[in-house]
Amino acid sequence: RRMKCGMGFCGHCQINNVYVCLDGPVFNYEELSKLKETEV
């Protein structure tokens, strides 16, 4: 996914309840395995 605003306003980077622009963009395997839309 691409980030549009980078501040959590637009919701474009939201996966479940996680905003990649605010909570990431780097995640460990445990965090990624909990997200339904990711394939790890």
TrEMBL record:
<feature type="domain" description="Dihydroorotate dehydrogenase electron transfer subunit iron-sulphur cluster binding">
    <location>
        <begin position="1"/>
        <end position="32"/>
    </location>
</feature>
<dbReference type="InterPro" id="IPR019480">
    <property type="entry name" value="Dihydroorotate_DH_Fe-S-bd"/>
</dbReference>
<dbReference type="Pfam" id="PF10418">
    <property type="entry name" value="DHODB_Fe-S_bind"/>
</dbReference>
<dbReference type="InterPro" id="IPR037117">
    <property type="entry name" value="Dihydroorotate_DH_ele_sf"/>
</dbReference>
<protein>
    <recommendedName>
        <fullName>Dihydroorotate dehydrogenase electron transfer subunit iron-sulphur cluster binding domain-containing protein</fullName>
    </recommendedName>
</protein>
